[in-house]
Specification:
Elements (H helix, E strand, L loop, with lengths): L1 H24 L17 E6 L32 H6 L4 E8 L4 E7 L5 H12 L3 E2 L1 E3 L2 E2 L1 E6 L2 E6 L1 E2 L1 E2 L8 E2 L2 E21 L5 E24 L5 H4 L30 E10 L9 H4 L8 H35 L2 H10 L17 H26 L10 H12 L1 H16 L5 H29 L8 H28 L23 H8 L1 H19 L7 H28 L6 H9 L1 H15 L7 H39 L5
Parallel strand pairs: 12-14
Antiparallel strand pairs: 1-2, 1-5, 3-14, 4-9, 5-6, 7-8, 10-11, 12-13
């Protein structure tokens, strides 16, 4: 009789935990960001990120310019791997806010500007550098009017240069508007448990904790000329008269030697109906980052339509050939083989080992690793686990997923190797090559770009300590897991070919056009599924916009996989029909050639959409990162095409009656 009691106790305990989970879900927000409630008058200090520019793409430290420093010294915030790799450097700042207290405050007055200070300020101003300030994990947002259109930006400029003028003016006064939402929360507590573990949950005397949530952070920058002799008599956070923005040119602070710059700011708290979970909506609906929904849907429908037509035609053609071939008797088959040409004539060569088979297996292994990383990352991002509030989380997640998916890369690469070779010898060499091929290429390119960043003294340069961390992750996690996956691949049963391979290779008939032309042309269809989304991804990376439509990106990714598989299979069938049995590499590059179009599109984007990008250093950085992206896409899409073509060829020839 003990079993029913135990079962009932477990059921009640489960029910209690379920209620607690539902209570917790009421306050659920995107992971990586936690709601903070501030009491009236509570002090809040803003933080500052690296200075960024869409003209140079070289981030610099905020305190590389002569700005006011915090009284307790500069303290760096803890940063994750992704933030460090992206060049973020989040420091504390002297800007103090008191919850729901409107005030106008003095910050500091700098010493006389030196020649180097003036040179730096002018250069950062003319390169359109932006100051990125953060309050309660929200970036500062400003509004501008361009041709009658209201546009939102994150950050504010270091300075500005009036038209038809050689003088530059520094932004030294900031008018902040902090949007707050009054919060009232009710607590719950468990007041007792019954004999069988039943939790009793009730409000704790309906005692409510009140406070304010920060749901918006806006800034209006302006330049104000102050009397330094008068302002130096003030102390930090002393009250000063409020000023209106913008000021006349004559009342603005010019950047030149021996000038002393005074920094002040206004704070205004405004109550808002925006709730905590919706506070990022304003950033994700920026004018420049608005997704063209109808264009994407139109592209998806066209590609589905084309892919469906190709797939139907292909099925009808193959089915007709198989039916005709299987209905003939042996004598008729022999006569047919003598009279007809086509894929049936390469039965003794179709599974012949390709040239550079080891390199092919290595690229397939790395392709599996990259594809798995992309799919899992985009799925988690689409579910909201990698929100913009969690800076660097997307890149950190991608790196960790890539490391742990080494086991899948080793398994698939070695499995393909044992299938082609018929033996598992040299599997360690294949596994090592898989673990080092793509990461090695990325490492070489990043090192070259890093020397450029070091020479420019940019915060985007990877610190030497981070290099050792990345190497440790590579050789202590990725390499062992790839070797483990390779070992598991040797223990798996090799895929048996349905036909025997002849000792003497069959001569491939001459063709009127080179096969590589068809392979290159095949990449246009997968590129058609990708290029619209690629524009928004590049805009997110290089123009500082937020990319958030991961649901659409997941649809595009699934569509890309389908189209790559179909294109590769169709092209493989076409090559077999003209008695070309060397299909392995052609199947890989039929879908992998989309990477060439991606790289060419990146160059097109640089020339026509990133016209503000200036200097050979910035262009080199852009092309280096674009090359890494193109190589990753080639390995991923090529692997999809090759594996699909392999299973198609295996199915095709296992369906034919062979003596």
């Amino acid at each position: 009789m003990a079993f029913p009691s135990i079962s009932r106790r477990k059921s009640c305990t489960f029910f209690t935990y379920l209620i607690l989970i539902f209570q917790a879900c009421n306050g659920f927000y995107l992971p990586g960001s936690y709601m903070h409630t501030y009491s009236p008058g509570e002090e809040i200090f803003a933080k500052v990120n690296s200075l960024t520019s869409i003209e140079t793409e070289l981030p610099f430290s905020y305190y590389s310019l002569p700005y006011c420093k915090p009284q307790g010294g500069i303290k760096k915030s803890a940063e994750n791997l992704g933030e460090l790799l992206m060049g973020d450097q989040i420091d504390n700042s002297p800007y103090r806010f008191r919850m729901n207290v409107n005030e106008s405050l003095y910050l500091c007055t700098t010493p006389e500007l030196s020649e180097n200070d003036v040179k730096l300020l002018k250069q950062r101003t003319r390169d359109l550098y932006q100051v990125n300030m953060i309050l309660d994990n929200l970036p500062a947002m400003r509004f501008t009017n361009q041709n009658g259109v209201k546009i939102q930006w994150t950050g504010y400029p270091v300075g500005y240069t009036p038209q038809n003028s050689n003088d530059d003016y520094i932004i030294n006064h900031l008018k902040f508007k902090v949007l707050i939402h009054e919060y009232e929360g009710a607590g719950v507590e468990i007041i007792g448990t019954g004999e069988e573990g039943m939790g009793v949950i009730s409000e704790a005397d309906k005692k409510k904790a009140s406070g304010f949530e920060i749901v918006g952070f806006e800034v209006v920058p302006c330049s104000v000329k102050y009397d330094p002799e008068k302002m130096t008599k003030l102390h930090r956070f002393d009250t000063v008269p409020s000023v209106s923005c913008p000021q006349e040119i004559g009342n603005s602070q010019i950047i030149r030697e021996h000038e002393r710059v005074t920094f002040t700011y206004d704070v205004e708290f405004v109550k808002s109906d925006i709730r905590w979970p919706s506070r990022w909506d304003a950033y994700l609906k920026m004018e420049g980052a608005r997704v063209h929904w109808f264009s994407i849907l139109n592209s998806l429908m066209v590609i589905f339509f084309l892919a469906g037509i190709v797939f139907v035609i292909f099925l009808r053609t193959v089915r007709r050939d198989l039916t005709r071939y299987e209905e003939l008797d042996k004598e008729a088959q022999a006569q047919m083989n003598e009279e007809l040409s086509g894929w049936k004539l390469v039965v003794g060569d179709v599974f012949r080992e390709p040239s550079h088979s080891k390199l092919l297996c290595v690229m397939v292994g790395d392709g599996v690793q990259i594809t798995g990383m992309a799919v899992v990352t985009i799925v988690f991002a689409a579910l909201g686990f990698m929100s913009p509030a969690s800076r660097g989380m997307l890149l950190t997640g991608m790196i960790l997923l890539y490391l742990f998916l080494g086991i899948a890369a080793g398994y698939v690469g070695v499995r393909v190797w044992t299938t082609i070779k018929g033996t598992s010898t040299e599997w360690r060499s294949v596994s090592w090559s898989i673990a080092c091929f793509f990461p090695g290429i990325v490492f070489v390119i990043l090192t070259f770009l890093n020397f450029i960043l070091w020479g420019s003294k940019s915060t985007g340069a990877i610190p030497l300590s981070l290099y050792f961390i990345l190497l440790a992750l590579w050789f202590c996690i990725s390499v062992p897991l790839t070797l483990l996956g390779g070992h598991l691949g040797t223990r798996a049963e090799p895929i048996q070919f349905p036909v025997r391979t002849n000792q003497i290779p069959r001569e491939i008939p001459a063709r009127k056009y080179p096969s590589w032309l068809l392979v290159l042309g095949a990449g246009t269809l997968p590129f058609g599924t990708l290029f619209i989304e690629l524009f928004f991804i590049l805009s997110s990376i290089w123009l500082g916009r937020f990319y958030y439509v991961f649901g659409f990106l997941l649809v595009v990714l699934l569509l890309l996989v389908i189209v790559c598989a179909e294109v590769s299979v169709v092209l493989t069938y076409m090559h077999l029909c003209v008695e070309d049995w060397m299909w392995w590499w052609k199947a890989f590059y039929a879908s992998g050639s989309v990477a060439l179009y991606v790289f060419l599109y990146s160059i097109n984007y640089l020339v026509f959409d990133l016209q503000s990008l200036s200097g050979p250093v910035s262009a080199t950085l852009y092309l280096g990162y674009s090359l890494i992206m193109a190589i990753a896409i080639m390995l991923s899409t090529g692997t999809i095409g090759l594996l699909t073509s392999f299973y198609f060829v295996h199915y095709l020839f296992s369906s034919v009656k062979i003596d």
